[in-house]
C-alpha cells in the first residue's frame, strides 16, 4: 500500500530501551530487540525506515488507506492487513510497535464491521501462533523498502488468524446455546426484558441465534402458561405480557363477588 524506496536509513545502532519511549516517534535509529532469559534476542522484524522519515510515512500511510477504502479498490480485510504490515515496516516508535499494530488491527476491524475481537482475544490468538506471525512478517517485509515485497504470506496469516477467531467464537456460542432448553430460555428472558407489548420481530432481534420455528414454539409455551397473549393475527401481530396480578385474576383467585 505504502512501500516505496527509502534512501535515508541512517546508521544502525543498538541502544537500551528508553524508559519513556512508548508512544513517541523514534529519536534515533535502532534495531528492535527484546530481552528473554537474561539475554537480548533479535526479533525477525523488518528494518525500520529512518527516524526523520517516520512521521511523514505515517501520514502517507493513513491517507493512502483512507483513499483506498473510499475508492473501494480492494477487499477491506486485505487493506487492513496491508495497513498493519506497512505500520510494522515503518516501525515508528521506540517500543510497543507490535502491540500497537494489534490495537490498530482491532480498531480497523471494528470500523469495517468485524467485531469478533470484542469476544475473542486476538492478542491471545497471535501469541499462540507467534512463530508463524514472525515468519509471515519477515517474509512479507523483505524488499519492502524497494516496493518489491510479497503480501501473500502476511495476508494468509492475517486472514487465517481472523478465521480462527471466528471459529473459536462459533464454538463458544454453540456450547452455550446447544444445551437442552437454552434457546427456549433465551426467548423467555427476551420477552421478560421487552416492553409489555411487543411484536415477533422484536423477539427475533433480541434472539439472533434462535430460528423462527423454535421462537414460535417458545411463544406458544408461554401462551399456554398464560404468561403472554396475542392481540392480533399474523407475524406482525402485537403480543402482550400478562402480569402476575392479571394471571391471578384470570384464574379466579381474586374474586370477591359471585358465587
Describe the structure in your own words.
- This protein has 259 residues and is mainly alpha-helical.
- It folds into 2 domains: 33-174, Fic-like fold, CATH 1.10.3290; 182-250, Arc Repressor Mutant, subunit A (Orthogonal Bundle), CATH 1.10.10.
- Helices cover 51% and strands 7% of the residues.
- The chain has helices at 54-71, 76-90, 97-111, 122-128, 130-141, 152-177, 182-193, 200-206, 212-224, 244-250; strands at residues 33-36, 39-42, 197-199, 228-230, 238-241.
- The strands form 2 sheets. It has a 3-stranded antiparallel β-sheet with strand order 3-5-4.
- Strand 1 and strand 2 (39-42) form a beta hairpin.
- Helix 1 (54-71) packs antiparallel against helix 2 and helix 2 runs antiparallel to helix 3.
- The chain is elongated, with a radius of gyration of 28 Å.
- It starts with 32 loop residues before the first strand and ends in a 9-residue tail after the last helix.
Amino acid at each position: 500500500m505504502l512501500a516505496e524506496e527509502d534512501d535515508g536509513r541512517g546508521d544502525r545502532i543498538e541502544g537500551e530501551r528508553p524508559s519513556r519511549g512508548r508512544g513517541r516517534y523514534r529519536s534515533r535509529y535502532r534495531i528492535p530487540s527484546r530481552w528473554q532469559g537474561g539475554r537480548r534476542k533479535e526479533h525477525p522484524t523488518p528494518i525500520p525506515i529512518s527516524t526523520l522519515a517516520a512521521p511523514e510515512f505515517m501520514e502517507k500511510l493513513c491517507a493512502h488507506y483512507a483513499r483506498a477504502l473510499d475508492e473501494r479498490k480492494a477487499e477491506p480485510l486485505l487493506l487492513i492487513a496491508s495497513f498493519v504490515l506497512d505500520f510494522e515496516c515503518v516501525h515508528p516508535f521506540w517500543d510497543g510497535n507490535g502491540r500497537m499494530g494489534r490495537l490498530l488491527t482491532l480498531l480497523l476491524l471494528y470500523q469495517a464491521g468485524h467485531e469478533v475481537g470484542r469476544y475473542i482475544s486476538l492478542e491471545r490468538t497471535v501469541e499462540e501462533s507467534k512463530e508463524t506471525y514472525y515468519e509471515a512478517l519477515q517474509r512479507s517485509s523483505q524488499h519492502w523498502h524497494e516496493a518489491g515485497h510479497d503480501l501473500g504470506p502476511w495476508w494468509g496469516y492475517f486472514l487465517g488468524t481472523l478465521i480462527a477467531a471466528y471459529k473459536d467464537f462459533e464454538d463458544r456460542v454453540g456450547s452455550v446455546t446447544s444445551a437442552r432448553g437454552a434457546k427456549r430460555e433465551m426467548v423467555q428472558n427476551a420477552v421478560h426484558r421487552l416492553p409489555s407489548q411487543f411484536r415477533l420481530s422484536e423477539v427475533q432481534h433480541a434472539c439472533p441465534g434462535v430460528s423462527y420455528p423454535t421462537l414460535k414454539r417458545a411463544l406458544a409455551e408461554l401462551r399456554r402458561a398464560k404468561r403472554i397473549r396475542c392481540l392480533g393475527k399474523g407475524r406482525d401481530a402485537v403480543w402482550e405480557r400478562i402480569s402476575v396480578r392479571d394471571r391471578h385474576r384470570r384464574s379466579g383467585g381474586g374474586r370477591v363477588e359471585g358465587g
